[in-house]
Design brief:
Layout lengths: L2 H9 L4 H22 L2 H18 L8 H20 L7 H13 L5 H20 L2 H11 L5 H8 L3 H21 L5
Helix pairs in contact: 1-2, 2-3, 2-4, 3-4, 7-9, 8-9
């Protein structure tokens, strides 16, 4: 079923919309949540909460594309759950992925750092545009979806070592890119 048809079902307040959403994007939603939480039952609960969020948001919203909209809700709910459950141990791909970037993206909570977020976002978007399509996919899968190296390697057809090396190089390039533009935090 097309995204537009699923959205129309939401506008009709048909429960079929949730079934179609689950059928089309459920696996990806669950994987995204699991990558953050590292716990299957928490991930399932967050995905279900996300479906409720989508149900409450559509209508009036007509998201385009639907997948991005749904995954953003899943990601936000999962991150909220992660922070709520957070312990002092590394238990998910989220912890590891965030630590890889933390050395040069972390900043203390302040008005200045809050104001710099928009500049930083624009710089990162520009950096991503400068990457090859394949490297951009690898970067986004790691630092947006929190996929582990093995999953990324399978999806893009590279070795785990190659993915690891590329990510290391991209982090270094990103750091240099941000420093050149005065966005180094």
């Amino acid at each position: 079923m097309l995204d537009e048809e699923i959205i129309e079902l939401f506008f009709e307040r048909s429960e079929e919309a949730l079934k179609e959403l689950e059928s089309k994007y459920g696996k990806m939603c669950l994987q995204t949540s699991y990558n953050i939480l590292g716990n299957q039952s928490d991930a399932e609960e967050c995905v279900n909460d996300s479906y409720l969020g989508v149900w409450n948001a559509i209508p009036p919203t007509r998201p385009k594309p639907l997948l991005t909209y749904v995954l953003k809700i899943v990601r936000n709910i999962s991150l909220n759950r992660y922070h709520k459950n957070k312990a002092q141990k590394r238990n998910s791909s989220y912890d590891v992925a965030v630590e890889e970037l933390a050395d040069f993206l972390a900043a203390p909570d302040s008005v200045e750092s809050a104001m710099a977020v928009n500049e930083l976002t624009e710089s990162i978007e520009a950096f991503l545009e400068s990457l090859t399509s394949e490297n951009r996919v690898i970067f986004v899968k790691r630092y947006w979806f929190y996929d582990d190296y093995e999953d990324i390697a399978k999806q893009v057809g590279l070795s785990v070592k190659n993915v690891s090396v590329r990510l290391t190089r991209m982090r270094k390039q990103l750091k240099e890119y941000l420093e050149e533009r005065g966005n180094f935090l």
